[in-house]
Write a structure and sequence with these properties.
By secondary structure, the protein is an alpha/beta fold. Helices cover 30% and strands 11% of the residues. The protein has seven helices and eight strands; from the N terminus they run E-E-E-H-E-E-E-E-H-E-H-H-H-H-H. Helix 5 (188-200) packs across helix 7. The longest helix has 18 residues, at 114-131.
């Protein structure tokens, strides 16, 4: 492909060869946010366009708010890798991927500039409106791949993005003492908590045992929705925040 017209007005086009057709008639009904995890935006663009990398994204958003589109939204970009959400695998086939330029651990997790977040919000609003993507299906890469990925990280301002009209978010319950569930615990309370995580969308087996899979799912949840402490322990704050999110879902509201 030599080029295409951008799906998002104002986006520059830099075509990546790393894409294919969405499989089994799937459509984009989910939006996945990433950080690039590279030293510069230019380096990230080059890597996402290199055939040998076998990775890509639909969009890259730079620190100054500049937006570059690399794959048409109708096509399947290679951004998410192995993962699942709501029991469905092949996340790439039902999602659109947005890479946000930020070095992550390479730069000690710097803040995301306001101009960048405002551009991300405008892009996400446009994508969600055109594809009918529900707020609760705007996700972190870490949500669909717990333990394997941590981006866009606990420094990503999900609350601000929500204030700009994107995503599903509630004010996290404050971290405090009280009863909690931790690795090694088992029984009905663990099973109930696992069921809540699964109902929200996280991929884990409901066993009644707080195993490593559960710990990783809790970390992913905390990284997105309760970033004050990311430790994989289901403390009172984590459980209450998850309950608030489930209660706020349209299909579950009274």
């Amino acid at each position: 492909m030599s080029g295409f017209s951008p799906d998002h007005p104002g986006a520059e086009v830099r075509v990546s060869p790393n894409f294919g057709m969405r499989r089994e008639g799937m459509r984009a009904d989910c939006l996945i946010l990433h950080y690039t995890g590279m030293e510069t935006g230019q380096a990230a663009e080059s890597w996402l366009c290199a055939p040998e990398s076998e990775v890509s994204a639909h969009y890259v958003v730079h620190e100054d708010g500049r937006i570059v589109q690399m794959v048409r939204e109708s096509d399947r970009a290679w951004h998410a890798g192995k993962g699942s959400w709501k029991g469905r695998c092949d996340v790439n086939s039902f999602s659109i991927g947005v890479e946000i330029v930020n070095p992550g651990p390479l730069g000690d997790f710097p803040d995301f500039p306001d101009a960048q977040i405002e551009a991300v919000a405008a892009l996400c609003r446009d994508i969600c409106a055109r594809h009918g993507i529900a707020p609760e299906r705007v996700l972190a890469h870490s949500d669909v791949s717990p333990g394997r990925k941590i981006d866009p990280g606990e420094r990503f301002p999900w609350g601000k993005l929500h204030a700009l009209g994107v995503g599903h978010y509630v004010a996290p319950a404050p971290v405090q003492g009280g009863r909690f569930l931790a690795p090694g615990d088992r029984g009905e309370p663990v099973e109930a908590f696992q069921s809540m995580l699964s109902l929200y969308g996280y991929g884990l087996e409901i066993t009644g045992v707080f195993d490593e899979e559960t710990r990783l799912a809790v970390e992913a949840f905390q990284r997105h929705f309760r970033p004050a402490r990311v430790d994989g322990v289901a403390d009172r704050s984590t459980i209450e925040t998850l309950h608030r999110l489930l209660s706020a879902l349209p299909a579950l509201s009274a």
